[in-house]
Amino acid sequence: MALAIKVNEETFTPRQQAVLTAALDLLVENGDGLTMTAVARRASCSKETLYKWFGDRDGLLTATVQWQAAKVRMPFVDRSHLNVKALRVSLEQFARDLLTTIIGEVSITLNRTAITHAAQEKDSLGNIVLENGPLAIRRRLKPILEAARDARLLRFPSSEEAYRTFFGLVVRDVQIRLLLGDKGLTQSNVEANIEADVKTATDQFLALYGAKASA
Amino acid sequence: MALAIKVNEETFTPRQQAVLTAALDLLVENGDGLTMTAVARRASCSKETLYKWFGDRDGLLTATVQWQAAKVRMPFVDRSHLNVKALRVSLEQFARDLLTTIIGEVSITLNRTAITHAAQEKDSLGNIVLENGPLAIRRRLKPILEAARDARLLRFPSSEEAYRTFFGLVVRDVQIRLLLGDKGLTQSNVEANIEADVKTATDQFLALYGAKASA
DNA sequence: CTGGAACCGTACCGTACGGTACGCCAGCGA
DNA sequence: TCGCTGGCGTACCGTACGGTACGGTTCCAG
């Protein structure tokens, strides 16, 4: 029944979603020391069912990451009436969503899992995370930037450069340090500074690419 | 003979360094599918020797990462006569070193290994990479920034913020995408653009924090 | 020449885990 | 009530790998 293809559809039965939730919880708790036996026990299902539904361990992992990564959805921003004020709000919203996402335990776990996976010629998980992470942001942000440029609110040589600058200004070294387990960077610690960081990043971005200096 | 402590010293015999080189090569090739048997075979030594020298698998891994990470040394920049021109050269040098390091296969492997390790309550490797990576840059860059501020070349509220901005402007989303195995970002592809990226990042940094607009 | 230390190569052990087989029960249509 | 299907629980198998033991070789000191 095309088990390997099943993961491409986003439709999982509630029971299957319960299994995926259990898998994700174990992933967050125990790192990628995820064992089929542990998932089966946690989800109160049999290993045979796991293999029937997901094919093999990789299939389960892929389904879990896929299912969870797809949940990260950035809210759409209003693009109809663009002015300086609205643009700033939109950018701040992007920055806020990006920051809150990457400092979350789920995001850290997913990224770590995908990176571990990528360390062994398996790039499927990495692609999923990429597609739902940085590349999703890029797809969502670029139209805004280009609209703002057309409205003479921003000025940049290429929207690609502008996107990357924005990403860098927002993320800085936070993500890599969290992925590496920097204890000097607690989640709550970063969380408390989100608003300030959001404002700083937005200010800096507008200072670099804004058509007018922001008062 | 204090085997576990041996790794704290940076002194390895040539034979041991050959073993570490073999381990690193395997790490780069096969990801973290590093097995003691493989290292022994590659290094033409016995497993017993590996355990004698490094204690256990983790010890070997730690020694390898430690030894390799310590090799990443940023060249010191001249801080005696600081002017706008010299500052720009220094910043560009930092950016260039940072970028070339990050996109290297060794760096990618080390970061992946440390992140994988960090995914299992083991943060030792993460700390080593952190200490020799982002934090080393910070330690090295901050004095320059502060000297430049004292010389009225830069203006910023805190050197911490300035460092993080610089890091973000230089690294952007390159590192995370490489770690995740983004195939749309080949090493040679990035390499070709290093100089342009270095200049862009430095320009942006100076635009944000420079005391005068750079002509 | 001899004893010992260091080390290579390899066989071996124990365990953990991916994957499979099987017994059992619940629900359900006939 | 009977039989079938789906799924739970568990026992089981094969393998890979961390770690150990041991025989053989080289080299050096005395």
Compact overview of the structure:
The structure is a homodimer of 215-residue chains. By secondary structure, chain A is mainly α. In chain A, 70% of the residues lie in helices and 0% in strands.
Based on helices, strands and strand pairing, what is the structural class of chain A?
mainly alpha
Number of helices of chain A: 13
Poorly predicted runs of chain A are 1-9
What order do the SSEs of chain A take from the amino end to the carboxyl end, as H and E? HHHHHHHHHHHHH
Question: What is the radius of gyration of chain A?
Answer: 20 Å
The total number of structural domains of chain A is 2
Fold and architecture overview:
The structure is a homodimer of 215-residue chains. Chain A is mainly α and 215 residues long. Chain A has two domains: 60 residues, Homeodomain-like (Arc Repressor Mutant, subunit A, Orthogonal Bundle); 126 residues, Tetracycline Repressor, domain 2 (Orthogonal Bundle). Chain A is built from 13 helices and no strands. In chain A, helix 2 packs across helix 3, helix 5 packs parallel to helix 8 and helix 9 crosses helix 10. Chain A starts with a helix and ends in a 6-residue tail after the last helix. At the A-B interface, helix 7, helix 8, helix 10, helix 11 and helix 13 of A face helix 7, helix 8, helix 10, helix 11 and helix 13 of B. Chain A binds a DNA duplex (30 and 30 nucleotides) through helix 3 and helix 4.
